[in-house]
User: Fold this.
Amino acid sequence: NADRCEDVYRTTALAMYRAGEYSKNTYAFYSDDFENDNLQQRELEQRLRTAVFNRMDGFSVSFRPISYLESGVNFSYEAQVRWVDPVLGQIPVKKLIKTAENIGIDAILDTWVIGKACEFCRKLNDKTGREDNVVTINLTIHELMHTPVHETIRSALSKYYLEGSNLVVEIPEKAQIKAYNEIASILGQLRKIGVRITIDDSAKEYASLSSLKFSFVNIIKLDARQFFNATNEFDRIMLESIVKLAHERDILVAVKHASDIAKHDVLYSYGIDLIEGENSDSIGEKSLTSKLRI
Assistant:
């Protein structure tokens, strides 16, 4: 693929980075397609950087409801960031976050999303006349380890006259497994001011027991399809045990991908506490008055 040393180095680097996108102990062979992908990625990075420094041009945040399964009463609203570029269109959230991390502007994006979430909660409190409404924000392992996110959260709560109890921070299960020592102190600081912590375990077949043993965990999130598809005794006993163990540790169990209302009785039989709404249920700040049902 190359005749010069510098080109050999460049093509090797592209193959190495491509392998790193998948998982550990993986290799990749160079392809000319990598060049096009690399150019597209550079364009995405440039347009993202421009949008962020142009007052978050094209960005918006919507809020997906999370409700108690038994009563239907709202528990929280989960913030979902969205970016629509005029040329590239809507960028998937995972790709957006990863690109922001790569070019070093994830802290700016975090600050904006956290601020929007707290602003929404303030408006929600004012509209309802209550001070106990809750919003949920998602953080990645990179954000926890490489940005002053806990200070950003403290500042936003103070700005909008909120308590820590008005906020839930959700992190992926792999974050607390891979970097527990690094993030434990940060999560501990958040817990001290009343912020609750959710571990998203929905990407795995079964919840990791480690998600249940750490003292900072308040909620675990699972995939509802695990419960819907539990057709043998072993699966049912395993899921029942996970829910029971969580409840014994005063941990709430939430599920996502539960759009089939006809199957909610299955979730109820397992003792599921919270159910996450679908994207179609999400609301924006502008529709707060017209769509919000409390």
